[in-house]
Design goal:
With 282 residues, the protein is an alpha/beta fold. Helix content is 42%, strand content 17%. It has one domain: Aldolase class I (TIM Barrel, Alpha-Beta Barrel). InterPro entries: Aldolase_TIM (IPR013785), HMGL (IPR043594), PYR_CT (IPR000891).
Length: 282
């Protein structure tokens, strides 16, 4: 079971600014846990996400010498991708491509067609530098705007991404709309249909809905899961009330209950939990 920790997603919607030194210390602690990937920051307009305006400074303070964890940064346009690619420590660039036209405009100020053109350009840039573009299909389980959604719509988006050569696609539950009834058929259809793509689950949940969501995705073949310690955060562009991220504690509990290997150092994880609670998100 591949776990991706997303402190960027946990931090981005907070109204108080977390000092750069605190962010850096927390991320260095997370690097010792053994996650596959750390979604650590973003190269977007400070006006849009002021919390992450110091991503380059934070990156400069990270100790990558003793970790197996790879770094992922979110970008919202080609300029952000070009900036991120100036940092060789970043292996993955993440781009939110929305299944909802309304949310694509709201999130990146682009149409879906324009965003897909950006995806093609970003993928080409990444390939030239031996990096990988991860595409998040936001609003992947439905949207509150009345825009078209169905498994067929998501499959069509995935087909376009596969034709571009994208190799990692994370179905993203931007507003917590997913249920087992929507999660299972999506992954069950997409995973066998696109064997060259690694599918991930970026699920948002409430404390009483997480298990059915994780079980549904795992049983349908998903092995890549995004989480955030404490279940903190969500997308500030999506709704007035944020539905929290999938708590990493719950993903770890699911893995332990089912005898699944995660590669995490549990002592280091407990240390990161304490730091999150006492210093970062207090």
């Amino acid at each position: 079971m591949k776990l991706i920790e997303c402190p960027r997603d946990a931090m981005q919607g907070l109204t108080h600014f977390i000092p750069t030194a605190t962010k850096t210390a927390y991320l260095n602690t997370l690097l010792g846990v053994g996650f596959d990937t750390l979604d650590f920051g973003s190269f977007v307009s400070p006006k849009a996400i002021p919390q992450l305006q110091d991503t380059a400074e934070v990156l400069a303070g990270l100790d990558l010498s003793q970790t197996r964890t790879k770094l992922l940064a979110i970008v919202a346009n080609l300029r952000g991708a070009e900036t991120a690619l100036q940092h060789p420590e970043i292996q993955y660039l993440g781009f939110p491509l929305s299944v909802s036209e309304t949310f694509q405009r709201r999130n990146t100020n682009k149409t879906i067609a324009e965003a897909l053109a950006d995806v093609a350009s970003m993928h080409e840039l990444c390939g030239k530098q031996s990096r990988t573009l991860v595409v998040y299909l936001s609003m992947g389980f439905g949207n509150p705007y009345g825009d078209p959604w169905s498994p067929e719509v998501v499959a069509d988006f995935t087909r376009q991404l596969a034709n571009l050569g994208i190799r990692i696609v994370a179905l993203s539950d931007t507003i917590g709309a997913s249920t087992a009834a929507t999660i299972t058929p999506l992954f069950a259809e997409l995973i066998p249909a696109f064997p060259a793509i690694e599918f991930g689950a970026h699920l948002h949940s409430t404390p009483d809905s997480w298990r059915e969501k994780v079980e549904a995705a795992y049983q349908a073949g998903c092995r890549r899961f995004d989480g955030a310690i404490g279940g903190i955060g969500g997308c500030p562009m999506a709704a007035d009330v944020l539905t929290g991220n999938m708590a990493t504690e719950n993903l770890l509990a699911f893995a332990l209950e089912n005898g699944l290997e995660t590669g995490l150092d549990l002592d280091a994880f407990a240390q990161a939990q304490r730091m999150a609670r006492e210093q970062v998100f207090h």
